[in-house]
Structure formats: structure tokens, C-alpha cells
Amino acid sequence: MFAMQLKAHHTPLEWVELPDPEPGPDEIRIRIGACGVCRTDLHVVDGELPHATLPIIPGHEIVGRIDKLGSNVTGLSVGERVGVPWLGHTCGHCYYCTHGMENLCDHPLFTGFTRNGGYATMTVADARYAFPMGDRGEDKDLAPLLCAGLIGWRCLNKAGDGKKIGLYGFGAAAHIITQVLRWQGRKVYAFTSPGDTQKQDFARSLGAVWAGGSDELPPEPLDAVILFAPVGALLPAGLKAIRKGGKVVCGGIHMSEIPAFSYDTLWEEREIVSVANLTRQDGLEFLKIAPEVGIKVTNTPYALKDANQALDDLRHGRFDGAAVLLP
């Protein structure tokens, strides 16, 4: 197989040829059709997440066809299309796994971070953490649902059922969850980098009732905001944008330093909550409703060999929606 491999932090990914991986008893081998490019991949490459396994093949928004089954795998078949998300394995016996919080497992493995991911022509995944994807839709359009969609869904559940929701950072996750919010009959307020009128126009085209810079206040207090942009300074900004009793949900796995802010910014029962990873139940729920919503993913395709360019374009916001690697 061929892959783009990270051998050391802060260096470009390298094109390598490796033996085809053999699945273990509980694993499946997947011939990859598409892999989304996520901001978490940038955090891995930049060394901002501790304890990465190096060398590593990044990528955790994988869609492909099963090529081989491990000896213990049941319920899946060769040729079936599946999706592989960030959460790639849990221990099954820690407190969190036994209390319905497997996303907080004490001994997890993460796709593209502590086990090889999807910047490749082939990969191996724990069969229990692979979602059947059916035959509807193209691989490139489904891949971003495996993280941008799933994390956005978990963030939305944490945000509650308020009618006015703000989204800071209008990239892959925000453009997907905007469509879910509009389908649910809620209002979306989009916050972009100051002066980024292209992203603001994109947000409005998807149904946002207001779009402006992250340095602006919305025209009315919001019920909740979700921070997709990993910028710590947006947390106090988000608190100022919500009503009394509102909530700020931090959706990133990494965030820059949060500046000090006065207590009255938080007071009146405003809440701050973070989202970590996802559960398999999140995946089942979201992938069930996605076809009902009719989510249309705006993506920019790149050849697998161009993964470094895709990451650089993501870093500098050079495309709308999501980026997807095609082997």
C-alpha cells in the first residue's frame, strides 16, 4: 500500500510504500475510497497533541470498502462500505466504558494519532468502531461526516435545544451542522475571522440568518454558541454573545491559551463545557439522520500525494467546507 506518513512533528508528511496491513482477529482491512482532512490532523502534525505514536499515518475521516475480515469479526462482509472515525478503540472495562462514556475511556486508541489512519490506500480498523455506510452517496461526500459531522453533532447535543445558536469558525464542522440546525428549525449565527466576507457569504448561502466577524456581537443574545475555531480568545467572546443561562461549547481537541476575563462575563449561570471525542452511539444517531437532513458537503478534493498541500490550505483557510484526500 501507499501512504503519507508523519515521521517527526513539524515536518512534512512523506510518501511511503508499506506492506499491506494484516487485520487482527477483531479487525477489518479497508481499501480506502476517501479520507477527510481535519484540523485535528494539523494538531497532530504540529505536535500540539501529546503522546502521538510516531511514525503515524494521519487521517480519521475514512470511507472505504472492506477488503479482509479478521477471524472474530461478525456482522460485516467483504465489499461492504464502512466509515472509520477518530475513536478507534476503547478498553471496555474502565469506569467510563462501563458507564456509557466510552469517549472518555482511560485506555483509548485514536485513528490517525495512536493507530494508523486514512492518509493511505489501505488501513486496518477495529471492526467494532467501523460504521456501515450503505451505498448511497459518494465516498468523498461521506468522509467529512466521520468527524466534522460527528463532533458537530455531539457539540449540538451539548448546546441544548435553544433556538438561536452561534458558530465560531465556519469550516467543515460548522457548514455541516448549520444544515442540521436549519432542518431542525433553528437560527444560525456564523462568526468568522474578522473581514472574511467569503466565509460569511458561504454561511449565509447555507441559511445563516446573520454572519459577521468574531470581533462582533450578534444582533441579539444567543441561547448557545459552539466554538469550532481552536482560538482561546473566542471563549470570553462567546460568553458575551450568549444570554443569561446560555452555554458555550468548546468543540476542539486543542485550543490556544484562554485569556483571563472578569467573573461578570461568566456570571448569571452562563456555562462552559468541552466536548471530547465521540461515542459509537453518537455515530449511529448522526449517520441515521444525515440522509433525512439531506446534508450537502462542500468539499475540495486533493490527490493523496498532495496531503501536505491540503493541510497547508486548511491552515490558511483557502477553501470553503471540507478537504478530502482521494487515493
UniProtKB/TrEMBL annotation:
<keyword id="KW-0862">Zinc</keyword>
<keyword id="KW-0560">Oxidoreductase</keyword>
<dbReference type="InterPro" id="IPR011032">
    <property type="entry name" value="GroES-like_sf"/>
</dbReference>
<protein>
    <recommendedName>
        <fullName>alcohol dehydrogenase</fullName>
        <ecNumber>1.1.1.1</ecNumber>
    </recommendedName>
</protein>
<dbReference type="Pfam" id="PF08240">
    <property type="entry name" value="ADH_N"/>
</dbReference>
<dbReference type="InterPro" id="IPR020843">
    <property type="entry name" value="ER"/>
</dbReference>
<dbReference type="InterPro" id="IPR036291">
    <property type="entry name" value="NAD(P)-bd_dom_sf"/>
</dbReference>
<dbReference type="InterPro" id="IPR002328">
    <property type="entry name" value="ADH_Zn_CS"/>
</dbReference>
<dbReference type="InterPro" id="IPR013154">
    <property type="entry name" value="ADH-like_N"/>
</dbReference>
<comment type="similarity">
    <text>Belongs to the zinc-containing alcohol dehydrogenase family.</text>
</comment>
<feature type="domain" description="Enoyl reductase (ER)">
    <location>
        <begin position="10"/>
        <end position="325"/>
    </location>
</feature>
<dbReference type="InterPro" id="IPR014187">
    <property type="entry name" value="ADH_Zn_typ-2"/>
</dbReference>
<keyword id="KW-0479">Metal-binding</keyword>
